[in-house]
């Protein structure tokens, strides 16, 4: 549709790529919602992480008052902090495992869309870059294009820009982005803590 | 001495708001410019994220419409956007950055998303308007 409206433009294909990316992002979030976000186990996990990270934060910021109680409270406080930290790490790991399930489905969808776009725009310049990208980026931005003009932009680079910016902002807008506490607690493969073993 | 705003003062209120929506809570617009308001990490992060995205779109539209050509304008965008973010939290809100994990954490908020969004808008406007 976009292509028909703007067919007089030389680079109207870029609108098609953006439109398809927006659509894909919405579909991916819908899949994630069905598989993860609406389930009660995800909700409880998320609230656990939020609570634990907030608790940890307040525990670390509040200083013990009273000189006499200081030694005793310091010891018990570190123990408490350790405990909360471990539970936070465990919950974050559970959350990542949980996300892996829908991540697989989303990856398949993204891969299929990429293949579809590739067949549509193979060897075609979909946009003109207003800058000359770095050598490493050129491999992607000039992928499958002939000619030496490095400001020619292939579909792959545009799709990459779209998928990152649109998806991140859509997730943020819908409130689906991972809780901040989880990022601090380590992902799926946390670095083993020598203290705990 | 600068008054330090404790995150736990409004913890209950924030938790309540957080459960309501999960991200941008329906807070008052006046709070965005109120140096006395207390912020929790999530709220401030969200606000900074969205400011960065708006700056990215505006810069992308401007750069593409003029049009500005060359890699140096990417650097100008990064400096401008980080400068706006820094000025916002350090000058307008006057938050204590240590409470939120330091300058690096606050300045990184939404950086990559805004960078790709800026490149996207710039490229789109440039390609569509000038060819």
From TrEMBL, chain A:
Q: Quote the subcellular location field of this record.
A: Endoplasmic reticulum membrane
Please report the record's description of how this protein sits within the membrane: Multi-pass membrane protein
Protein name as it appears in the record: Calcium load-activated calcium channel
Keyword tRNA-binding assigned to the entry: answer is: no
Annotated GO MF terms? calcium channel activity
Q: Which GO terms describe its biological process?
A: endoplasmic reticulum calcium ion homeostasis
Q: Where would you say this protein principally sits, based on its record? A: endoplasmic reticulum
From TrEMBL, chain B:
Q: Which InterPro entries match?
A: EMC6-like, RCAF1
Q: Is Endoplasmic reticulum a UniProt keyword of this protein? A: yes
TM regions (residue ranges): 73-91, 111-129
The UniProt entry lists the main location of this chain as endoplasmic reticulum
Q: Where in the cell is it found?
A: Endoplasmic reticulum membrane
What is the protein's membrane topology class? Multi-pass membrane protein
Q: Keywords of this protein's UniProt record, alphabetized?
A: Endoplasmic reticulum, Membrane, Transmembrane, Transmembrane helix
Q: Which residues form a coiled coil?
A: none
Give the domain of life.
Eukaryota
Q: Per the record, what is one GO cellular component?
A: endoplasmic reticulum membrane
Query: Basic and acidic residues bias: where?
Result: 1-16
Q: Where is this region: Disordered?
A: 1-22
Q: So what family is this one in?
A: Belongs to the EMC6 family.
Question: What is this protein's record name?
Answer: Rab5-interacting
Per the UniProt entry, what species is this protein from, by scientific name? Answer: Cinchona calisaya
């Amino acid at each position: 549709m976009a292509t028909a409206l703007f067919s007089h433009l030389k680079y109207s294909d870029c609108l098609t790529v953006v439109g398809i990316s927006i659509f894909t992002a919405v579909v991916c979030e819908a899949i994630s919602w069905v598989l993860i976000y609406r389930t009660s186990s995800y909700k409880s996990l998320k609230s656990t992480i939020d609570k634990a990270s907030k608790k940890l934060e307040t525990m670390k910021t509040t200083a013990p008052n009273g000189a006499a109680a200081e030694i005793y409270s310091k010891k018990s406080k570190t123990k408490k902090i350790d405990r909360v930290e471990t539970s936070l790490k465990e919950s974050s790991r559970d959350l990542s495992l949980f996300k892996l399930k829908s991540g697989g489905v989303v990856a398949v969808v993204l891969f299929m869309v990429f293949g579809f776009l590739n067949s549509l725009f193979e060897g075609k310049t979909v946009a003109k870059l207003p800058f000359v990208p770095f050598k490493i980026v050129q491999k992607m931005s000039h992928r499958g294009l002939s000619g030496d003009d490095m400001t020619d932009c292939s579909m792959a680079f545009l799709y990459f820009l779209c998928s990152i910016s649109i998806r991140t902002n859509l997730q943020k807008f819908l409130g689906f982005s991972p809780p901040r506490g989880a990022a601090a607690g380590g992902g799926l493969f946390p670095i083993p803590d020598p203290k705990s073993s | 001495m600068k008054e330090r705003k404790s995150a736990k003062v409004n913890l209950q209120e924030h938790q309540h708001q957080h459960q309501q929506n999960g991200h941008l809570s329906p807070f008052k617009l006046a709070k965005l410019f109120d140096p006395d308001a207390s912020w929790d990490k999530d709220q401030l992060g969200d606000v900074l994220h969205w400011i960065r995205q708006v700056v990215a779109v505006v810069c992308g539209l401007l750069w593409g419409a003029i049009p500005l050509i060359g890699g140096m304008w990417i650097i100008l965008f990064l400096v401008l956007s980080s400068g706006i973010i820094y000025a916002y939290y350090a000058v307008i809100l006057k938050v204590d950055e240590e409470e939120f994990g330091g300058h690096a954490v606050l300045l990184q908020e939404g950086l990559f998303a805004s960078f790709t969004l800026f490149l996207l808008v710039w490229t789109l406007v440039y390609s569509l308007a000038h060819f």
